Amino acid sequence: MSKNKSKVKVPQKTYPTGPDFKGKFRPGEALVKVKEIVDSKLEGASYTQDKLSLWNTEICNDIRHELKGLAKDRYKYVVQAWCGENKNQGIRVGSRCLWDKTSDDVCYYSFKNDSIVFLVAIYALYLY
């Protein structure tokens, strides 16, 4: 005679291996907020050396605060900004990082008026 033993299923511990579709960072969503912040701070402003550090700090902090409001769980945001005087010169900025192309993303915005050039790069990195 064989005894029929029922096996008890023990749930395995799980953790997210990536964001779900709704929880994924969307650069278009972020770009709208970044554009609002940068344009409101720098529209009509003129270049002065003394204000550059203040503008960079304020704009980066405001962008980080707004991005947290997007409620994208498990994302870390890195915000970089470059500001300079506009004398019709070119600017080239490069960066390099390791990332997962299925969950990480980047968003760029550039602002330019008669006296200021301002560039912002936002890196959204999913924390596993």
UniProtKB/TrEMBL annotation:
- Regions of biased composition (Basic residues) lie at 1-10
Fetch the Pfam families from UniProt.
Tctex-1
Q: Tell me the superkingdom of the source.
A: Eukaryota
A Gene Ontology BP annotation from the UniProt entry: microtubule-based movement
- Gene3D superfamilies from the xrefs? Tctex-1
Q: Where is this region: Disordered?
A: 1-22
| GO MF, one annotated term | dynein intermediate chain binding
Q: Which InterPro entries match?
A: Tctex-1-like, Tctex-1-like_sf
| Record-level GO cellular component terms | cytoplasm; cytoplasmic dynein complex
Q: What protein name does the entry list? A: Uncharacterized protein
Native species: Euplotes crassus
